[in-house]
Structures are given as structure tokens and as C-alpha cells.
Design a protein that fits this description.
Layout (H helix, E strand, L loop, with lengths): L9 E6 L6 E6 L8 H14 L3 H4 L12 E12 L2 E12 L3 E5 L6 H9 L6 E6 L2 E2 L5 H7 L1 E3 L12 H7 L9 H5 L6 H18 L15 H14 L4 E5 L7 H16 L4 E5 L3 H7 L2 E6 L2 E6 L1 H5 L2 H8 L9 H10 L2
Parallel strand pairs: 5-10, 5-11, 8-9, 9-10
Antiparallel strand pairs: 1-2, 3-4, 3-6, 6-7, 11-12
Helix pairs in contact: 1-7, 5-8
Length: 339
Amino acid sequence: MRSRQPAKPDCKRVRDDSLPILAWKLDGGTHGRHDVSRGSRRRDFYDRVGYGAEMTSERPNLQASTIAPLLEAAQVTLLFGGVKALADVSFSIREGELFSIIGPNGAGKTSIVNCISGRYRPTEGKILYRGEDITRLKPNDRAMLGIGRTFQNLALFHHMTVLDNIMVGRHHLLRNNFITGSLYWLTGARREELAHRREVEEIIAFLDLQPVRKAIAGTLSYGLRKRVELARAIALKPRLILLDEPMAGMNLEEKEDMARYIVDLNEEFGMTVVMIEHDMGVVMDISHRVVVLDFGRKIAEGEPAAVLDDPHVKSAYLGEEDDALVDPDELSHHAEVRP
């Protein structure tokens, strides 16, 4: 009687005939995320889903100064009563860039992202997207234009499964309404749901979420929940994706994985990425350009190495007093009260 040889780790594609979606099954052993199977799986994902296909075929030259910006913040000021969260902030983001927003805590980073996504409306100034003024558009209208985002504090539906949370990101793409959806089998609603489900399953495979796809989101670890939120943002099929501290609270391995996913979104999908991040090593490694905020004001903008050497940036991170950060209104007030 021949002895049975131990099974070798093998990653196979299996198809569920009840729902024609690619699933991935691991037969025995452990599977590293950095092997050949992940690369082939990623290429399959790009070919089937087609995210950013029209952009990746002709990627913009990021060095060209004449290229029109995809997004532009023009002299944005945001007031909360007497608190000035943003003061005359201006910058532009070219299509295809991986653009980072950095600065100390309370610098106004999330405030400017909220103005871009529509959560806040600037007190003064404009937000331009592809040359159009979107300052007064609602958040759902901006999602329809191709602007997706994640949140600094997780905004998942904790009582729902991972799969259902990601499916929420497809809501604005659904064409069936309340009436036609109620006639599920007769109006094409089932066919439409299956089509969206296929794309969601591909996103799950891309982000290695298959083992937890049916798990309740609230039971997952913090790092996995961050990944689920990224998956939901990808499900919107955005042209511009806003990531608010996507690596906060993660260990080194989780940060490496998340950084790899973000680079793939930018380089392979053609998505323009705007990222808030405190890990300066990650920012310097993967960003094309960086803008620095402090006390609601822009103090530097440019390539990572040049920004890091800026004396105003060093002063901001070291907590030193900097004349560039003094509010002109405060200077005039002090001049008036001075004897």
C-alpha cells in the first residue's frame, strides 16, 4: 500500500456554477501574499473588471506642467463660528497622481478632504473637479461624478457582512428602482444584482478578503476593517479616491500591504489618489507630490524630498514658532491693542 504524499500548497481557481464569480481556494499549507499567484490574480482582476481601463491605456505625463488639473482647491476657507479650520488653502491635483496631504494633528487635513467630498461646504473659495465648480454639490452627486472616499474613523455598517458592506458602494450604479426592484425576477433586477456582485467578488479577491467575505464587519480586526472600507470605496468605481489615514493603527506588515494596494490602485487602475497619512516613510516612498498644512494654512507643496527639506515644514513638525503661520488678522489685532 503506497503512502500518501503530503499535499503541496496550491492556489487554484474554482467556479461556483450557481453564481459565475471567480473564487479562490487554497488547498493546504500557507499562502504568501507576495508570490506569483497574487500577480496573476491581480492581472486577471484588471482584465475582467476594467477599472480605469480608459485611463491606463493613455496614462498622463505627470511631469507635464500644461496638463489640466483633475481637482483644484481655490482659496478655500472654512469657518466653524470663530474657529478658522482652513485659511485660503489652494492646490491642484493632476490626473494619475498619488497626492499626499500631511501636517501635524489639527492642521486641517481632514477638513479639506471633507470639503472635497462634500461633507463640508467651504465658507469661501471653490472646489473644481475636471474644470467644473462642485462646491455646492451634495456628497451623493460627487460620488456620481467619480469621487470616492474612506474615513479616518471607520464608517462601516458593523452589523452587516463584509460582502454587504462592499455592495453598498455599488448603490449609485444600480438602475432598478423601488418598483422594478420589487419585481425581482421579472424586471432584470436579479440580473443587475448578479453583475454588480461579480465585480464586488473581484474586489474581495484583489484585497485578499475571501476568508472573511461572509463575516460580520464589526467582528473583524481593525486592519481588516480598514481594508473593507477601502474595498467599498473601490466599489464606487471612482476616478478620484480620497483616503483619510488608511494606515492609522496598523502594524508594519499591515502597512506594507495597504501601501501596496494603494500603489496598485494608482499605477494599474489609473485612479488618482489623495491620501492623508502621518507615516512619513510611507508618504515619501509612494507619493508623487505632497502638500503640507499647519493651523489651517498651506505651508509647502511639491515633490516629497523638497517638501521634507522646507524650513517651514521642519518648524511645524518640531513645534517651533514660524512667522509664516501667524494669522494676519491676529497681527493687526495685537498691533491695535499694543500701547
